[in-house]
Amino acid sequence: MKKTIANVLFLILFVILVIGILQMPTTASTNAPAYNDIVYHYINNGATDTNAVNLIAAILADYRAFDTLGETIVLFTSVVAVGSVLRSTKYDKEAKENE
Amino acid sequence: MVILNIVIIIFLITCALAIGKIKDLIGAVILFSAYSLVMSILWLILNTPDVAITEAAIGAGVTSILFFAVISKTKRYEK
Amino acid sequence: MNDIIIKNITRIVIPFAQAYGIFIILNGHISPGGGFAGGAIIGTSLILYTLVFGREKGKKKFSHKMSEIAESGGIMIFVLIGVIGIIMAGSFLANQSAGFPQGELGNILSGGFIPILMIAIGIKVASTMISLFNILIDEEKV
Predict the structure, then answer these.
(1) What sections of C54-113 are H helices per DSSP?
(2) Which position has the higher pLDDT, A98 or A71?
(3) CB contact under 8 A, A86 and C141
(4) Do C118 and A57 touch (CB under 8 A)?
(5) Who's near C70: CB < 8 A, 6+ residues apart?
(6) Residue B57's domain spans which residues?
(7) Is the Cβ–Cβ distance between C142 and A92 less than 8 Å?
(8) Taking CA atoms, what residue in C is nearest to B62?
(9) DSSP secondary structure string, C20-58?
(10) Domain extents for chain A?
(11) What are C110-129's pLDDT values in tens digits?
């Protein structure tokens, strides 16, 4: 019983997602929401603003450099979290010896 | 080109379903690595070489090694 | 691992992989690629060294102390460049108005601070990959 309910819900979700995909704008369409004035600004002024040929690097490291700083801080936080849980320090050794 | 797209997307869907079903965790990681490689080819077809390089390096290389390191600490087979 | 074929092939492959990673980082602003992809390639080559030659030899090449320095050093370079922008032009991470040398369009020395940021991100990502692997593979807590 549980399994049939789950399968039916799964099928309904599948149909909804397929309908959603069919509504999406196709590749390089002018109806896409991301196709607005800022695209023209980047394409026309990107090379003179930043002096970098690769437009993606210009956006990542100049126009949106603050976002990239956030990404690197996320990486730093992940290493600090894993290290604080798994790495053994000298305090762990002292606690082991005192037991 | 349309046929290549269809073949790639069917491969991706099959890989994703198999990752959920398989009981051997190392097999799941290898399937995930194959998924990432084919996904990077799909990015290349969509004219985004930056994302393709990053996907091939991080998705297929580093992620699977980190998963292997975690599996070596726990059990290989799912119950 | 004590296989002579794997050891010899690893010795040959690692310099090429690292040179390719450095190429991708340094050419980040004139061709596809950038800090994230190049850093991941360099980190993977160091992980390969640790896997083949063992943890002890890997520790000599990239110790915990060095990874701590590289972790915080990458972010420090990034923030320092942003602060230079504040001092020179009044806004965080200002490029052209802060007077960074611009160079000629299309050369490897162009784009103001973009190559420096790419190198900082590359160091950060490479040391993140190798230190995550080392922490996970080390012996459990004493």
Answers:
(1) 55-61, 64-89
(2) A71
(3) yes
(4) yes
(5) C123, C124, C126, C127
(6) 2-73
(7) yes
(8) C44
(9) HHHHHHHTTTTSS--HHHHHHHHHHHHHHHHHHH-HHHH
(10) 2-98
(11) 888 888 999 999 999 999 99
- What is the tally of structural domains in chain C? 1
- How much is the CA Rg of chain C, to the nearest whole Å? 18
- Complete DSSP assignment for B24-57: BHHHHHHHHHHHHHHHHHHHHHTT-HHHHHHIII
> Within a domain: residue C132?
yes
Chain centre distance of CA C36: 8
What's the CA gap between C132 and B58, in Å, rounded? 13
Give A90's contacts in chain C (Cβ within 8 Å).
Answer: none
Q: What is the domain range of residue C75?
A: 4-137
Predicted complex ipTM = 0.82
As given in the structure block, the two tokens for residue C7 are: 């050891």
Closest approach of A25 to chain C, Cα-based (Å): 26
Check if B69 contacts C (Cβ < 8 Å).
yes
Residue C141 pLDDT: 54
Contacts of C125 in chain A (CB under 8 A): 75
| Partners of residue B54 in chain C, C-beta under 8 Å | 34, 36-37, 40
Q: What is the mean pLDDT of chain C?
A: 87
pLDDT of B3 > 70? The answer is: yes
Are C96 and A51 inside 8 Å of each other by CB? yes
Which amino acid, residue A20? Answer: G
Rounded to two decimals, what is the model's pTM?
Answer: 0.85
Other C-beta atoms closer than 10 Å to the C-beta of C33 total: 27
Q: Which residues in chain B touch residue C33, judged by CB atoms under 8 angstroms apart?
A: 50, 53
Q: B44: nearest CA in chain C?
A: C32
- Residue C133 placed within a domain: yes
**Rounded distance between C-alpha atoms, residue B9 and residue B28, angstroms:** 19
Which residues on A lie below 8 Å from C132 (Cβ)? 78-79, 82
The position carrying tokens 């050369």 is C107
Q: Do C40 and B54 touch (CB under 8 A)?
A: yes
